[in-house]
C-alpha cells in the first residue's frame, strides 16, 4: 500500500523589529502542520541563511545529509537540538533518522516528498527575500560581494567571518573579520576577531553596498574596528589592545 507524498512549506518567521524577543526562523510546515512545534520547545528553528540558498542543506542529494533544523536557545550542548537526515531516492525526497542529542530519537515518522515539488519549494523560499528589512538585505548583498572578492580583505590580512543584521538592531549591520585568517584558529596560531558596526539608511541597498564595500577595503578595516574575539595573549602578540570591561 502506498500513501500520497507529504507537502512541504517553508515558513519564515520574523519577530517585530526592535524587539529583543525571538529570532528569525525558517520553520518546516508539513501538510499544514508545524511539526517542530510538537516535539521541540527549547529554542527556535534555524535561521534561513543557514537552511536556504543555492547550496542549502535542505536540497536533497543521493548522499544522505544530516541537517540541524532547530537548536535550544541555551545551545545544543545544554538542552539539545533537532536533526533530520535528508536524501534523494528516485522521484522522492526522504526525511528520516530524526534525533535530538539531548534525548535520543525524536517522535516523528519518516516523511516522503515528491522530489519535484520539494525542490521547487526550497528554491522558492531561497529566492523570496520579501520578508527582509533593509539592513538584512544590505547585509546579504555585502556578504556576497565580499566573498566574491576575498583578495580585497586579504590585502589587509583579514578574512570575512560574517555580515549580520539582527532584528533588535534594525538600522545597522555588523561585519565580523578574522585576522590574520580563520585557519589560524585550527593551526593554533595567534588570531583575533574584529567587529565593525555600520549604520544602514533607507537608501537603495545596492548603492549602500557599493559604499560599504569601498569603505571596508580601501583602507585597513582593523584601524576602525573593535576586537571582539581571540584572547588578550593573542592581542598582545599581534599588537592590538584587548577590550577592557564595560564602563559602568
Automatic annotation (TrEMBL):
Protein name per the record: Uncharacterized protein
Amino acid at each position: 500500500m502506498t500513501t500520497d507524498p507529504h507537502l512541504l512549506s517553508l515558513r519564515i518567521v520574523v519577530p517585530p523589529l526592535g524587539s529583543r524577543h525571538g529570532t528569525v526562523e525558517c520553520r518546516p510546515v508539513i501538510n499544514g502542520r508545524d511539526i517542530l512545534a510538537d516535539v521541540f520547545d527549547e529554542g527556535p528553528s534555524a535561521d534561513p541563511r543557514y537552511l536556504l540558498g543555492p547550496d542549502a542543506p535542505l536540497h536533497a542529494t543521493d548522499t544522505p545529509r544530516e541537517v540541524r533544523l532547530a537548536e535550544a536557545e541555551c545551545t545544543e550542548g545544554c538542552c539539545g537540538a533537532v536533526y533530520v537526515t535528508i536524501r534523494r531516492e528516485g522521484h522522492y525526497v526522504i526525511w528520516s533518522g530524526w534525533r535530538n542529542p539531548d534525548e535520543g530519537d525524536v517522535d516523528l515518522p519518516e516523511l516522503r516528498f515528491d522530489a519535484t515539488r520539494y525542490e521547487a519549494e526550497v528554491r522558492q523560499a531561497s529566492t523570496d527575500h520579501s520578508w527582509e528589512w533593509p539592513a538584512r538585505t544590505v547585509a546579504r548583498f555585502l556578504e556576497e560581494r565580499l566573498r566574491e572578492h576575498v583578495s580585497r580583505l586579504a590585502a589587509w590580512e583579514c578574512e570575512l567571518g560574517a555580515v549580520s543584521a539582527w532584528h533588535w538592531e534594525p538600522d545597522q549591520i555588523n561585519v565580523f573579520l578574522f585576522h590574520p585568517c580563520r585557519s589560524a584558529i585550527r593551526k593554533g596560531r595567534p588570531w583575533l576577531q574584529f567587529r565593525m558596526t555600520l549604520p544602514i539608511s533607507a537608501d537603495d541597498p545596492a548603492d549602500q553596498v557599493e559604499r560599504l564595500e569601498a569603505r571596508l577595503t580601501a583602507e585597513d578595516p582593523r584601524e576602525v574596528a573593535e576586537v571582539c574575539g581571540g584572547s588578550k595573549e593573542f592581542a598582545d602578540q599581534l599588537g592590538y589592545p584587548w577590550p577592557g570591561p564595560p564602563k559602568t
